[in-house]
């Protein structure tokens, strides 16, 4: 299923209630994204290649949803009200919540690029912001909700992995700047967005491959797992952050020699999760 904002890759046949989404790997930069820093700097906000790393999902009966727009343009992993009013030339008519992310300049629409340079040499209009929400953000969320609801209606339960990548060293906006990251960080918002056994299944599978796995430290999961994870309704959402150094050069975004190994190991993870889901149904 194709839309300018997203692509959905479904399995043949009925498939499994196992859904992956990649909100930050989009590289279609819209013509009206007149960012001030060079594109190479703006692109450091991406989770480059993440959707492709999980591209094998349909072969395991799973669904993959890929955001096509860049995260720095509008960030699907923020609440729609995390609006930085300092970005706007006129007053935003809707609700605004001043979160820590908006104060850091990385709210719904980023005010600064990675490294702290201002993203724009001008103010944005409320009309531009409304268009970004309506044309990109909302359709992406509708795609996630639609796929989750479709599988939940059919199977009575759904398991969702929200896929990201993280810098190998925490950057200035991280909770622990300068600290080296594990290979994977799983986030279930301290056990509130999925059953603990789902987090444990992912952690155990990755650990058995030799990876260093952290849970909720320092990334607990953000808006997408918060919004869709309701374990009491058998809707399980877990965020997975993979260390970028495992698969690419972090400054050029070019895949490195580790890419193929990681891709293969993510296929093994998907196979294990398919078995996990089958055992639960
Ligand atoms: Zn991300």
SSE string, helices as H and strands as E: EEEHHEHHEEHEHEH
Q: Unreliable stretches, pLDDT < 50, 5 or more residues?
A: none
Query: If you average the pLDDT, what whole number results?
Result: 96
Number of domains: 1
> What would you report as the Rg, rounded to the nearest angstrom?
18 Å
Q: What CATH architecture would you give? A: 3-Layer(aba) Sandwich
Q: What top-tier CATH class fits best?
A: Alpha Beta
Distance between the termini: 26 Å
Ligand types: zinc ion
Largest sheet: 8 strands, mixed
Widest sheet: strand order?
1-2-4-3-5-8-6-7
Structural class: alpha/beta
Silhouette: globular
Q: Output the number of helix runs.
A: 7
Overview of the structural elements:
There is one protein chain. The protein is of the alpha/beta class and 281 residues long. Helix content is 30%, strand content 15%. It has one domain: Aminopeptidase (3-Layer(aba) Sandwich). Strands 1-2-4-3-5-8-6-7 form an 8-stranded mixed β-sheet, with helices on both faces. A hairpin with a 2-residue loop joins strand 1 and strand 2. Helix 5 runs antiparallel to helix 7. The radius of gyration is 18 Å and the shape is globular. The chain starts with a strand and ends with a helix. It binds zinc ion. The site of zinc ion (ZN) has 3 residues, from loops. The site of zinc ion has 3 residues, from loops.
């Amino acid at each position: 299923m194709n839309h300018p904002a997203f692509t959905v890759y479904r399995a043949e046949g009925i498939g499994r209630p196992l859904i992956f989404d990649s909100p930050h790997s989009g590289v279609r930069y819209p013509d009206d994204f007149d960012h001030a820093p060079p594109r190479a700097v703006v692109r450091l906000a991406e989770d480059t290649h993440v959707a492709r790393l999980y591209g094998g999902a349909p072969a395991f009966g799973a669904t993959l949803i890929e955001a096509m727009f860049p995260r720095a343009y509008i960030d699907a992993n923020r609440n729609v009200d995390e609006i930085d009013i300092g970005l706007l030339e006129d007053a935003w008519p809707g609700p605004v919540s001043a979160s820590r992310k908006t104060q850091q300049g990385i709210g719904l629409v980023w005010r600064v690029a990675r490294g702290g340079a201002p993203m724009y040499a001008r103010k944005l209009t409320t009309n531009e912001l409304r268009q970004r929400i309506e044309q990109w953000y909302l359709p992406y969320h509708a795609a996630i909700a639609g796929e989750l609801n479709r599988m939940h209606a059919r199977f009575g339960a759904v398991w969702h992995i929200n896929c990201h990548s993280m810098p190998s060293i925490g950057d200035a906006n991280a909770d622990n700047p300068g600290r080296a990251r594990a290979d994977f960080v799983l986030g279930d918002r301290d056990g509130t967005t999925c059953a603990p056994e789902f987090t444990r299944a992912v952690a155990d599978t990755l650990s058995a491959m030799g990876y260093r796995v952290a849970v909720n430290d320092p990334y607990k999961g953000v808006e997408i797992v918060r919004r869709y994870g309701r374990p009491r309704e058998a809707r399980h959402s877990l965020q997975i952050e993979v260390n970028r150094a495992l698969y690419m050069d972090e400054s050029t975004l070019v895949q490195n020699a580790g890419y193929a190994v990681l891709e293969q190991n993510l296929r093994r993870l998907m196979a294990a999760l398919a078995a996990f889901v089958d055992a639960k149904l």
